[in-house]
Amino acid sequence: MKVAPAIEGARTATPGTDKAIDSQMNEILTHFKGEKGELIPILQQVQQRFGYLPEQAMKRIAEFVHVPPSTVFGIGTFYAQFKLVPTGRNIIKVCRGTGCYVRGAPKIITELENQLGIKDGDTTPDMEYSLETVACFGSCALAPVMVVNDKVHGRMTPEKAKKAIGKKSE
Ligand code: FES
Question: What is the pLDDT of residue 51?
């Protein structure tokens, strides 16, 4: 059995089989009427539930709001908030903007890459963590900044970054 995530805000649902996706889609779509204007809110719900937009879910959404699948796919690829490939249950984002860079962001990124054994843009093989860098969070006064599952951590050090992802000091 999978151990519950130790990090606040970790995604708990996993998409699983096609049947599991279908059943979760049924549940999500009961909250909507099937109007075109609901497309983005539906995609947001699906992204939140699965951590990405499964192709099967996008086809289902297209039918539901009566638009071609290419429209749904186009929106999914246009907005950075949507992912088309599975991500880890914990999303770790580190700012690589100038303000954070000069205050030590590269050391934090290196520490996280070492701790997780992955590079920027990758997901751990157990699907626990995805590591991303972003241009600026708009919280430059807190530089260097990292965000773990939407929780902002400011004035980071490599040691604090390690703790924020639930890794203990040796
Ligand atoms: S430069 Fe990092 S939050 Fe703005």
Answer: 86
